[in-house]
Design a protein that fits this description.
By secondary structure, this protein is of the alpha/beta class. It is built from twelve helices and 14 strands. The strands form three sheets. It has a ten-stranded mixed β-sheet with strand order 2-1-3-12-11-4-5-10-8-9, sandwiched between helices. A two-stranded antiparallel ribbon has the order 6-7. The two termini are about 25 Å apart. The structure holds nicotinamide-adenine-dinucleotide (NAD). Nicotinamide-adenine-dinucleotide (NAD) binds next to helix 4.
């Protein structure tokens, strides 16, 4: 059956980087015979301008009918001062919850060609390949009760609630173990079980799920130690699985070990295997429309889309290899440029990836 992909270019550099990724898609459809039905939609500031809301009903309906969504990025100064409930970022939260995207996958992979882009020593980060699996729809970001109330003595008190049910923990743990089974077969579950009861349960449930995956090695680590270990010796990790808030913080930390925001993709998956794929960076309004944006994070997000929602690991590998090839050829957008390399624009980088794909085999 032909799979449906919804493409949401979004705002700022979104349309430019998505256009390069569509070149890759067009090549795969025309030259490799991949059967896909592509649709386009509005999300973010462009949707506010066109329809008055950041997530039009039509976009959510199309998203629900799709097997996967490719997103550029949303937001920008133009919409920073409009009413909070219709800001572009609300569209992003709306589509995530509307589709039940509970598992956020953030790989931190360092291409050897870019080892000198990290702020850490090359020997500490070269060969880095971590997958952080973050729970995305539960935990303290969504727990009730929450708010700011006035106490009897007149001062205000802010409060949030960290809650996790067994089923929420179990489904994210299974995602992590399944992914690890296709990698180095190691999972590190990150919690704060010594202080927080909710993560004491987390540890217990993850340990139970591990019994179904006897060939996967499970380790537990407190979040404070995990942060330290990520900087001290990041290559010790294969798959890390953690709560919404811990994952938010650790995945940003891990991604920056690679030193290049324009290189990092992400996936957010639902329980039926469908998902939304997007670069981790924002809409970079400072460079939008100038042919300066690095499209590789979005192209690598397409690779994740093939790997996780379409079960086409071979195509995903080919896209990854094409990206690696252009880096080996010395091509760099401005954000990752270095002495002796050839600095190219967004368009040229997209063309180079297609060329590298076409010369494979
Ligand atoms: P940003 O990620 O857009 O930009 C941070 C810096 O990185 C900027 O200097 C930018 O030029 C650079 N950069 C980012 N992506 C790049 C790329 N592909 N190539 C080259 N350089 C790149 O973060 P920000 O400036 O904090 O946010 C800008 C807007 O993006 C805001 O409106 C914010 O709300 C939004 N945002 C959206 C998402 C999303 O769509 N998922 C995520 C983060 C921020």
């Amino acid at each position: 059956m032909t799979k449906k992909i919804l493409i949401l270019p979004g705002d700022g550099i979104g349309p430019e980087i998505v256009a390069q990724t569509e070149k890759v898609l067009a090549f795969l459809i025309d030259q490799r015979g991949i059967k896909l039905e592509l649709e386009h939609g509005l999300l973010g500031g462009c949707a506010v301008d066109a329809a008055g809301v950041p997530l039009p009903d039509e976009t959510l309906a199309k998203a629900k009918e799709s097997d996967a969504i490719l997103l550029g990025s949303v937001g920008g100064p133009k919409w920073d001062t409009i009413e909070r409930s219709i800001r572009p970022e609300r569209g992003l939260l709306g589509i995530r919850s509307g589709l039940g995207l509970f598992a956020n996958l953030r790989p931190a992979v360092l291409f050897p060609q870019l080892a000198n882009a990290s702020t850490l020593r090359e020997d500490v980060v070269s060969g880095l390949d971590i997958m952080i699996v973050r729970e995305l729809t539960g935990g303290i970001y969504f727990g009730q009760p929450r708010g700011i109330k006035e106490l009897e003595d007149g001062q205000r008190q802010g409060f949030n609630t960290l809650v996790y049910s067994e089923s929420e923990i179990e489904r994210i743990a299974r995602v992590a173990f399944e992914i690890a089974s296709k990698r180095q077969k190691r999972v590190c579950s990150v919690d704060k079980a010594n202080v927080l009861e909710a993560t004491e349960l987390w540890r217990e449930v993850v340990t139970n799920v591990a019994k179904d995956y006897p060939d996967i090695e499970l380790e537990h680590m407190y979040v404070d130690n995990a942060a330290m270990q990520l900087v001290r010796n990041p290559k010790q990790f294969d798959v890390m699985v953690t709560t919404n808030m811990f994952g938010d913080i650790l995945s940003d930390l891990a991604s920056m070990l690679t030193g290049s925001i324009g290189m990092l993709p992400s996936a957010s998956l639902a329980s039926d295997g469908s998902g939304m794929y997007e670069p981790i960076h924002g809409s970079a309004p400072d460079i939008a429309g100038q042919n300066l944006a690095n499209p590789l994070a979005t192209i690598l997000s397409l690779s994740m889309l093939f790997r996780y929602s379409l079960d086409e690991a071979q195509i995903a590998d080919q896209i990854d290899q094409a990206v690696s090839q252009v880096l080996t050829d010395g091509l760099r957008t401005k954000d990752i440029n270095a002495e002796g390399m050839t600095c190219v624009g967004t368009n040229e980088m997209g063309d180079a990836v297609v060329k590298a794909l076409s010369s494979q085999r």
